[in-house]
Records
---
Amino acid sequence: RRRMGLLAAVARRMLTLVASAAYLVVVVPAAKVVRLLVIWVLSQGAIPRHVAFIMDGNRRFARKKHMGSVTKGHSAGFSSLQMVMKNCFDLGVKELTVYGFSLENFKRKEEEVQFLMKLAEDKLRVITSPENRKAAEQNGVLIKFIGAKELLPKSLQECISVAEDESSPKLVEMNVCFAYTSRWEIAVAVEQIAKEGGNITSEAISKKLQLSPPDILVRTSGEHRFSDFLLWQGAQSVFMVHDIFWPEYSFWNLVSAILYYQWALPEISRRKAVNMNA
């Protein structure tokens, strides 16, 4: 009986190992195959060159998950950003713009603002560290920060400078709007035109803006607002709202956004043609 019990235990153990191995061999690769298949299917249609995100809902996500502090929601939001970056570039997106920190966010509690500054600084130090430099070069990402950088802590300004200096023109662009609002960007453009003695026209302003028009502008958290983000450039963009918080944003949410873009593209193209001929 003892021997039979031992044999049964060994058999159960072996069955568990076999099941685990089968999972790794069959399920995980299958998920990767599905992902590659979806990417291929989407590539048969138009892939947006430039995708912009209003990353909304970090604080509400923290409350929903009972994390105890909204700062933990911001940390989760950064992890989501890393995943979204990879997903976008895997799908063939060439330019990604994210609304990282609005000028209006300076009005939040000092503790939260300081945490966001420290979080940005810490993540930039990791990105620009010697051990990650080679990987960054292989990924070929050009990083740019757009905003009133003079309002940021000196230590963060230095980290931004290093990140931008180490980002030579590569395959894809990553624009981080930090201490930014669209009104700020437009005001800076108008100031430059005035200093140069030029005429302030819509065409002149468009040429002086620091960000290009996004093909699709995505917002999370279910809010149907632009929140002073790419107001000028987004006039002809497809606008997509997801009723989830930013840390919950997945590959499949991005797929649905691109499918919506492909569905809406003919009408958007028609309107652009009409405006050009007007």
Note: The longest strand covers residues 172-180.
---
Amino acid sequence: MELETEADGKLEAEVQTETIMEMEREVKTQTEGESVERDPESDTRTGEVKREREMEPVLVCVSGSTPLLWRSADLRLVRERMGIVGTLVGSLARQPRQNCRLGRPLQLLLEEARLLKDTGRAVLVKGAESECDDDRVNVEVEESYTKHLQHSYEEQGRLALEEKKRVLQRVMTERFRDEALTDQPIRERLSSLKSSFSFPRSAMMVQLCTARARLGYAPDEHDWLAADWTLPRDNKQEVRYRVYQDLRQQGYYITSAGKFGGDYLIYPGDPLRFHAHFIAVCVPIKSESPISDFLCLARLGANVKKTILLCSLSETESEGVIYTSIQWSGMV
């Protein structure tokens, strides 16, 4: 059943994509036909409104110490205009029982959120907090939710029983057409179905609340909702942030490289179009490491066809970040 649902979801997504593409082609055709009659002042006003919307700060919801982006417009803006990639960590409303394709919210690296905040392109707001004191559960809300689940279970059980009856009646009708088969077992099963049918609770569908409140705040509420920045400012984190800031200024796209044993994966363009060329490892300039660590990094980079970059802050501000590349060339 889940496979059929997923297949239907994919088919529906393909149909929607084709419909959107067709609508875009129609709009493009109409636009080309009406290009002569356009008002230049109207185009100018539209461009100004679009630029003002892009200059508005995005809302970063801080849940504990994790920065999240919820609004789809913010996700698109930070990726297209600011080169912030992040990681989707939410489930899809129509396909919640899979983790191949994820949806909102977008989880940001701490360095990504800090860069947005330092450049004035983001406003940090508090995440939703529990309204219960001392971890006490609101009994009335819990009882109401339990009654709702029980009512939903009974309703789904009744619908499942009716569907089972329809299936048996359809089979009995098909057997009636074939004179060589008898429908007596089907009749007996249909008569005892109501007493023997059991609808398992594990098959019950539960509605997932995908809507999130507190995403659109008025400007005068930003100060009251301003979140405290909980990012640790030790030497290691400062090196990571300075390296991230320098690479972004050079136009590179950056994601986390935890599964490659480094700090960042560095892309020459959008990760949807390019493979990563470098694995950045942030180390303090005066730190000492055994030679075996560098050998492991070099062998890892060779296996995944990427260059290892050792990134350190120079002792003088004028030199900025120092990059040292490591590549495996073989045993001597």
Note: Strands lie at 58-63, 66-69, 87-90, 103-107, 122-126, 253-256, 264-267, 278-282, 307-313, 321-326.
